[in-house]
């Protein structure tokens, strides 16, 4: 007997009014993701034009911190103005931030623009997951989430190319300006096709101000610490941020206003899903931070090529999501427990081959490219199912919080993953002794350390599968009761 989750198909997702809704949700996320990679690509050119090299890394730091704030506030925005105008407001904020970046005469203005961009982008990402459960039937949730998540892989290929072209000809401002009309278009499109009223789980409640402040402070602190070449400051920043997270956890458990659903810490309900999401996300985040450096220094690749090699993880994530999102529940469970082994294999091969260096020929690079793809693919195989399961298991009255939490968890993991990778690399000798020797040591210990993540995920995915099976049995029982009635 099939449940609703198993019955969806790609044809249903792209037929009739669903096609327009899918285009709108996917387009908004794609624009945000493409902007991330455009910004990263053109930033060196921006520095040459308006200065501010001392604040180079803060372009990303402030963007991520503001995105987390936006994602955490998305449920309140959705509850106050409804899906239609919430999406429009998010698009307008994102467009304003992009415009500020396009006209920025100095780095302080650029940083302000990036913060506004991040705030609007966080809204867009969180609202996209909320819209999935509001505009699609439950049987289409996994497919829609897979498609939305897959846009990051597409963006990792398209964004650097767009940014590279504008940067090469010295028109970095046009790189920002070119996406503003498209942002506005998708915002207006949402006005016509999105529902006006929010769901029962999107009613306006109080903002979790204490958690907002503490979580943002933790992200800023760990991001700041990761900028230092000193292991002492790296470790101190991570330790201090962990303390703030501990305080956040304590407040979250007692506060009437939540960032995560109430069952997020219950190992018999949502906790295994969130833990597995974190482990898998860290596999990619910690790996891809230093991939361009490793391949430029140890394998003689040019910056553009090295950047696209790092994008192989994103491509693998996308293809993994799209190829398994329509499988039956039984096959999906098999894939979920197998996926961490694929990621573990990829990390082991990278630990063996990347540190030793090579002449950079394609025969040398091929096994490493395949391994990079495998790491991302292993995450993609599981990702849309984990996110859909969170929405399916969460009670109706907390659906808004659950939707926003999917983006919040991923963004926080991204910030901490970059800091963790920097700490491991510095401890391994990236700065001291530095040079090719330091980079080689950093590559070895980074990939060796990261193998712990899929090992833990192997344990957690088995718990997830048992959770999925129990949930399926409950759904079947409910359907039997409904049919009998």
The CATH topology name of the largest domain reads: Growth Hormone, Chain: A
Radius of gyration: 22 Å
The CATH superfamily of the largest domain is known as: MFS general substrate transporter like domains
State the distance separating the first and last CA atoms: 18 Å
- CATH architecture name of the largest domain: Up-down Bundle
Stretches where pLDDT is under 50 for at least 5 consecutive residues are 1-5
Element order: H for helix, E for strand: HHHHHHHHHHHHHHHHHH
Shape: globular
For the sheet with most strands, the description reads: none
Number of helices: 18
GO molecular function, one term: transmembrane transporter activity
InterPro entries: MFS, MFS_dom, MFS_trans_sf
Protein name: MFS family permease
Subcellular location: Membrane
Topology diagram in text:
Elements: H1 4-7, H2 10-13, H3 17-50, H4 58-103, H5 107-135, H6 141-168, H7 172-177, H8 180-193, H9 209-226, H10 231-254, H11 271-288, H12 291-299, H13 303-324, H14 329-353, H15 362-393, H16 399-428, H17 435-450, H18 452-484
Helix pairs in contact: 3-5, 3-6, 3-8, 4-5, 4-8, 4-9, 4-16, 5-6, 5-16, 6-13, 6-15, 9-10, 9-16, 10-16, 11-15, 11-16, 11-18, 12-13, 12-17, 13-15, 14-15, 14-17, 14-18, 16-17
